[in-house]
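Q: Sequence in, structure out?
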Amino acid sequence: MPRKRNFAALLRWWRAQRGLSQLALAQRAGISQRHLSFLELGRARPSRDMVQQIANALDIPLRQHNALLVAAGFAPEWRETDLGAPELATVNAALDYVMAQQEPYPAIVVDRHWNLLRANNGAARLVEFLVGPLAPDAKVNLAGALVAPDILKPYLANWQEVVRYFIHSVEADAATDGTEETAALLTRLRSYDGVSEAMAKAPLTANAPVLPMHFRKGETSLKLFTTIATLGTPQDITLQELRIESFFPSDRGTAEVLRSWAPNDRSAKN
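A: Exactly. Output:
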């Protein structure tokens, strides 16, 4: 993203990020190509409605939508509410419900930079088995824990394959949100030992429908695949950037181990 945060520069940058010609973007936004050209050159000043039209046409995330408004001289449109705020009570209840339904299998809630916000009992048991219990107020970044050489890597038998897919997902995030924070996260992840080699390695021939994360510690082997869910119609920056990741066993042995760790859970008996 350009350091010079004026509207014209941001508009040009976002159009290039989306791979759109001026004509294509003008058609999406319902304006003339000439007017769009004037906006990109700084020869015309957009109205608030025009900024919103263009942001929607570019499919810009809410956080960056606000940045585009501010660059054009307008107040932000979208709020960023603390997840614990009373007005998000129904969303929090939904998150708790989803994670409870996932028991005894792990489920977590993370933000756009993979900072851990919430975890169910299944996730806590998995983490405790692999690396020991976490302090109640510990700040955990799942991206760093996965890619760094000294946290999960020693227990992840197919670390190279998993990290390659994960780095590609962060690359996609960086292209989508265009923030310095996501770009910095990507740079940090790429700097860890072994990542360059993992990225350069040719992908394996697919021998399963999904790539599992294969954890191995002592005699215990766990193979898990994940699904990632987001809120469907977020109108708040915090909610748009939430991800709910649920872990499922890839084989019967993994399912039995996870259930055995939670003998008193109602769901462990299903």
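Residues 159-177 form the longest helix (19 residues).
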